């Protein structure tokens, strides 16, 4: 595990600051800062910065090779985010599904898509030793 004094930082493009802020705040992410060209969020304890750059938006996003997200060690926390996404009608790119069923690395996962077509994965491994 990482030390609590370290925060992962990710910068991604967005096409509109207002719709980006609305999406991430509905997801439960706290808006940390907003400037004319970017918004910064507390994304489950890490930092996500969405830079205004409409020309860099992926017009036809695919799960692989580019997405980011959270792996939950606690199934209840995974379920809370899943239910929040459903209740707040956030757009799903991939509905909840089981990957690698019956294998040690089996996990449940779903993908959301933000307003700039960035893909966010949320997952929980049944065997916590498979997280890394």
From TrEMBL:
Residues 6-125 form the VOC domain. It holds the Pfam family Glyoxalase. SUPFAM superfamilies: Glyoxalase/Bleomycin resistance protein/Dihydroxybiphenyl dioxygenase. This is VOC family protein. InterPro entries: Glyas_Bleomycin-R_OHBP_Dase, Glyas_Fos-R_dOase_dom, VOC_core.
